[in-house]
Protein backbone atom coordinates (compact mmCIF):
# COMPACT_ATOMS: atom_id res chain seq x y z
CA UNK A 1 0.00 0.00 0.00
CA UNK A 2 1.34 3.40 -0.97
CA UNK A 3 2.41 5.70 1.91
CA UNK A 4 2.99 2.91 4.39
CA UNK A 5 5.93 0.57 4.76
CA UNK A 6 5.64 -3.10 5.49
CA UNK A 7 6.95 -3.84 9.01
CA UNK A 8 9.36 -6.70 9.41
CA UNK A 9 8.31 -9.00 12.30
CA UNK A 10 10.77 -9.64 15.13
CA UNK A 11 12.28 -13.12 15.12
CA UNK A 12 10.89 -15.36 17.84
CA UNK A 13 13.09 -15.69 20.90
CA UNK A 14 14.36 -19.06 21.91
CA UNK A 15 12.58 -20.61 24.92
CA UNK A 16 14.19 -19.54 28.19
CA UNK A 17 16.27 -16.77 26.62
CA UNK A 18 16.15 -13.23 28.11
CA UNK A 19 14.14 -10.59 26.24
CA UNK A 20 16.19 -8.48 23.81
CA UNK A 21 17.20 -4.94 24.69
CA UNK A 22 15.38 -2.19 22.86
CA UNK A 23 12.51 0.27 23.06
CA UNK A 24 10.01 -2.55 23.62
CA UNK A 25 11.92 -3.62 26.75
CA UNK A 26 12.76 -0.49 28.73
CA UNK A 27 15.39 -0.73 31.40
CA UNK A 28 17.08 -3.78 29.89
CA UNK A 29 19.94 -2.05 28.06
CA UNK A 30 22.54 -4.53 29.28
CA UNK A 31 22.77 -2.90 32.71
CA UNK A 32 22.30 -4.95 35.84
CA UNK A 33 21.31 -3.50 39.18
CA UNK A 34 23.75 -3.74 42.06
CA UNK A 35 21.36 -5.91 44.06
CA UNK A 36 21.07 -8.36 41.17
CA UNK A 37 24.86 -8.51 40.99
CA UNK A 38 25.06 -9.35 44.71
CA UNK A 39 22.41 -12.06 44.33
CA UNK A 40 24.33 -13.85 41.61
CA UNK A 41 27.75 -13.33 43.21
CA UNK A 42 29.37 -16.49 44.62
CA UNK A 43 30.34 -14.55 47.76
CA UNK A 44 28.16 -11.83 49.30
CA UNK A 45 30.93 -9.51 50.44
CA UNK A 46 28.58 -6.75 51.60
CA UNK A 47 26.52 -8.93 53.95
CA UNK A 48 29.42 -10.89 55.40
CA UNK A 49 31.38 -7.68 55.95
CA UNK A 50 28.43 -6.15 57.80
CA UNK A 51 28.08 -9.34 59.87
CA UNK A 52 31.74 -9.17 60.89
CA UNK A 53 31.63 -5.44 61.61
CA UNK A 54 28.48 -5.47 63.72
CA UNK A 55 29.62 -8.57 65.64
CA UNK A 56 32.82 -6.88 66.76
CA UNK A 57 31.40 -3.39 67.28
CA UNK A 58 27.91 -4.02 68.66
CA UNK A 59 28.40 -7.32 70.51
CA UNK A 60 32.06 -7.57 71.48
CA UNK A 61 32.32 -3.78 71.86
CA UNK A 62 29.47 -3.55 74.39
CA UNK A 63 31.55 -4.08 77.56
CA UNK A 64 34.35 -1.93 76.15
CA UNK A 65 31.95 0.98 75.63
CA UNK A 66 30.64 0.58 79.19
CA UNK A 67 34.19 0.77 80.55
CA UNK A 68 35.31 3.75 78.46
CA UNK A 69 32.23 5.98 78.73
CA UNK A 70 31.68 7.74 82.08
CA UNK A 71 29.11 6.13 84.37
CA UNK A 72 27.60 9.57 85.07
CA UNK A 73 26.27 9.65 81.50
CA UNK A 74 24.24 6.49 82.09
CA UNK A 75 22.60 6.34 85.56
CA UNK A 76 21.94 2.91 87.02
CA UNK A 77 18.18 3.34 86.57
CA UNK A 78 18.58 4.03 82.83
CA UNK A 79 19.92 1.94 79.89
CA UNK A 80 23.70 1.87 79.68
CA UNK A 81 25.87 2.42 76.62
CA UNK A 82 26.16 -1.34 76.22
CA UNK A 83 22.37 -1.65 76.25
CA UNK A 84 22.09 0.70 73.28
CA UNK A 85 24.74 -1.33 71.47
CA UNK A 86 22.74 -4.47 72.21
CA UNK A 87 19.51 -2.87 70.95
CA UNK A 88 21.18 -1.99 67.66
CA UNK A 89 22.51 -5.55 67.37
CA UNK A 90 19.01 -6.98 67.92
CA UNK A 91 17.69 -4.90 65.00
CA UNK A 92 20.57 -5.13 62.51
CA UNK A 93 21.33 -8.85 62.85
CA UNK A 94 17.85 -10.20 61.94
CA UNK A 95 17.73 -7.72 59.05
CA UNK A 96 21.04 -9.09 57.71
CA UNK A 97 19.80 -12.65 58.15
CA UNK A 98 16.69 -11.88 56.11
CA UNK A 99 18.79 -10.29 53.36
CA UNK A 100 21.06 -13.34 53.37
CA UNK A 101 18.11 -15.71 53.00
CA UNK A 102 16.81 -13.63 50.09
CA UNK A 103 20.02 -14.34 48.19
CA UNK A 104 19.92 -18.09 48.69
CA UNK A 105 20.35 -19.92 45.36
CA UNK A 106 17.44 -22.18 46.33
CA UNK A 107 14.01 -21.43 47.76
CA UNK A 108 14.20 -22.13 51.47
CA UNK A 109 11.37 -23.05 53.90
CA UNK A 110 10.06 -19.57 54.69
CA UNK A 111 8.02 -20.60 57.73
CA UNK A 112 11.07 -22.08 59.44
CA UNK A 113 13.13 -18.99 58.62
CA UNK A 114 10.51 -16.60 59.98
CA UNK A 115 9.97 -18.59 63.19
CA UNK A 116 13.74 -18.83 63.71
CA UNK A 117 14.25 -15.08 63.30
CA UNK A 118 11.31 -14.28 65.60
CA UNK A 119 12.76 -16.64 68.22
CA UNK A 120 16.21 -15.10 67.72
CA UNK A 121 14.88 -11.57 68.36
CA UNK A 122 12.99 -12.73 71.45
CA UNK A 123 15.99 -14.58 72.89
CA UNK A 124 18.39 -11.69 72.21
CA UNK A 125 15.93 -9.28 73.84
CA UNK A 126 15.58 -11.49 76.92
CA UNK A 127 19.36 -11.59 77.18
CA UNK A 128 19.50 -7.80 76.78
CA UNK A 129 17.29 -7.23 79.84
CA UNK A 130 18.97 -9.88 81.98
CA UNK A 131 22.46 -8.74 81.06
CA UNK A 132 21.59 -5.11 81.77
CA UNK A 133 20.33 -5.90 85.28
CA UNK A 134 23.26 -8.22 86.03
CA UNK A 135 25.78 -5.53 85.10
CA UNK A 136 24.11 -3.11 87.49
CA UNK A 137 24.24 -5.65 90.30
CA UNK A 138 28.04 -5.57 90.04
CA UNK A 139 28.02 -1.99 91.37
CA UNK A 140 26.14 -3.26 94.42
CA UNK A 141 28.73 -5.95 95.17
CA UNK A 142 27.33 -8.87 93.18
CA UNK A 143 30.01 -11.46 92.30
CA UNK A 144 29.47 -13.27 89.02
CA UNK A 145 31.77 -16.17 89.87
CA UNK A 146 29.39 -17.18 92.67
CA UNK A 147 25.93 -18.66 92.27
CA UNK A 148 22.91 -16.49 92.99
CA UNK A 149 22.26 -17.91 96.47
CA UNK A 150 25.96 -17.79 97.42
CA UNK A 151 26.28 -14.04 96.76
CA UNK A 152 26.46 -12.07 100.04
CA UNK A 153 24.12 -9.29 98.84
CA UNK A 154 21.53 -11.89 97.77
CA UNK A 155 21.73 -14.06 100.87
CA UNK A 156 20.67 -11.17 103.10
CA UNK A 157 17.54 -10.34 101.12
CA UNK A 158 14.24 -10.35 102.99
CA UNK A 159 11.84 -11.95 102.32
CA UNK A 160 13.73 -14.96 100.99
CA UNK A 161 11.32 -15.31 98.08
CA UNK A 162 13.19 -12.40 96.47
CA UNK A 163 16.10 -14.80 95.96
CA UNK A 164 13.87 -16.92 93.75
CA UNK A 165 13.18 -13.83 91.62
CA UNK A 166 16.91 -13.23 91.11
CA UNK A 167 17.41 -16.89 90.23
CA UNK A 168 14.62 -16.55 87.65
CA UNK A 169 16.40 -13.50 86.20
CA UNK A 170 19.66 -15.48 86.02
CA UNK A 171 17.85 -18.35 84.28
CA UNK A 172 16.34 -16.00 81.68
CA UNK A 173 19.71 -14.37 81.04
CA UNK A 174 22.16 -17.27 80.98
CA UNK A 175 20.06 -20.22 79.85
CA UNK A 176 16.80 -19.33 78.10
CA UNK A 177 18.07 -16.12 76.50
CA UNK A 178 21.28 -17.64 75.16
CA UNK A 179 19.49 -20.74 73.83
CA UNK A 180 16.79 -18.75 72.04
CA UNK A 181 19.49 -16.44 70.68
CA UNK A 182 22.20 -18.75 69.35
CA UNK A 183 20.27 -21.87 68.29
CA UNK A 184 18.01 -20.02 65.78
CA UNK A 185 20.96 -17.92 64.61
CA UNK A 186 23.08 -20.89 63.60
CA UNK A 187 19.99 -22.75 62.35
CA UNK A 188 19.34 -19.94 59.85
CA UNK A 189 22.98 -20.05 58.70
CA UNK A 190 22.71 -23.83 58.33
CA UNK A 191 19.52 -23.49 56.27
CA UNK A 192 21.19 -20.89 54.06
CA UNK A 193 24.29 -22.98 53.40
CA UNK A 194 22.22 -26.06 52.58
CA UNK A 195 20.59 -23.95 49.87
CA UNK A 196 24.01 -23.16 48.39
CA UNK A 197 24.58 -26.71 47.13
CA UNK A 198 23.66 -26.04 43.51
CA UNK A 199 25.43 -26.97 40.26
CA UNK A 200 27.99 -24.25 39.53
CA UNK A 201 31.42 -23.81 38.01
CA UNK A 202 34.10 -24.95 40.40
CA UNK A 203 36.61 -22.49 41.85
CA UNK A 204 40.19 -23.33 42.64
CA UNK A 205 40.21 -21.22 45.81
CA UNK A 206 38.10 -18.93 47.96
CA UNK A 207 37.69 -15.29 46.92
CA UNK A 208 40.25 -12.96 48.48
CA UNK A 209 37.50 -11.01 50.27
CA UNK A 210 36.28 -14.22 51.90
CA UNK A 211 39.77 -15.12 53.07
CA UNK A 212 40.19 -11.68 54.66
CA UNK A 213 36.97 -12.10 56.67
CA UNK A 214 37.66 -15.67 57.80
CA UNK A 215 40.15 -14.56 60.47
CA UNK A 216 38.10 -11.95 62.38
CA UNK A 217 34.84 -13.89 61.99
CA UNK A 218 36.36 -17.18 63.24
CA UNK A 219 38.00 -15.41 66.17
CA UNK A 220 34.70 -13.78 67.16
CA UNK A 221 32.62 -16.96 67.05
CA UNK A 222 35.34 -18.93 68.83
Q: How would you sum up the global shape?
A: elongated
Please estimate the helix content. Answer: 55-70%
- What is the average per-residue confidence, as pLDDT, rounded to a whole number? 79
Tell me the count of domains: 1
Q: Show unreliable segments.
A: 1-5, 19-32
Transmembrane segments: 47-69, 84-101, 113-130, 181-202
Pfam family, one: CLN6
Region (Disordered): 1-26
Keywords: Membrane, Transmembrane, Transmembrane helix
What can you see in these coordinates?
It holds the Pfam family CLN6. With 222 residues, the chain is mainly α. It has one domain. It is built from seven helices and no strands. Helix 4 runs antiparallel to helix 6. The termini are far apart. The protein is elongated.
Give a concise summary.
The protein has one domain. It is built from seven helices and no strands. The protein has helices at residues 34-40, 45-68, 81-102, 110-138, 152-155, 161-194, 208-221.
Comma- or semicolon-separated keywords:
disordered N terminus; mainly alpha; 7 helices; elongated; 222 residues; single chain
What's the layout of helices and strands?
Layout: H1 34-40, H2 45-68, H3 81-102, H4 110-138, H5 152-155, H6 161-194, H7 208-221
Helix pairs in contact: 2-3, 2-7, 3-4, 4-6
Region (Disordered): 1-26
Pfam family, one: CLN6
GO biological process, one term: lysosome organization
Amino acid sequence: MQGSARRRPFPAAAPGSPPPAGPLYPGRHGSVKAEDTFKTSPFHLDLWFYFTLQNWVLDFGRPIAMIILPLEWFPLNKPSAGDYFHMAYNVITPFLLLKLIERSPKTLPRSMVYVSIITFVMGASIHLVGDSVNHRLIFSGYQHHLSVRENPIIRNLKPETLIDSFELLYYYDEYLGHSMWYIPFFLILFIYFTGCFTPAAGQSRMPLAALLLVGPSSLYYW
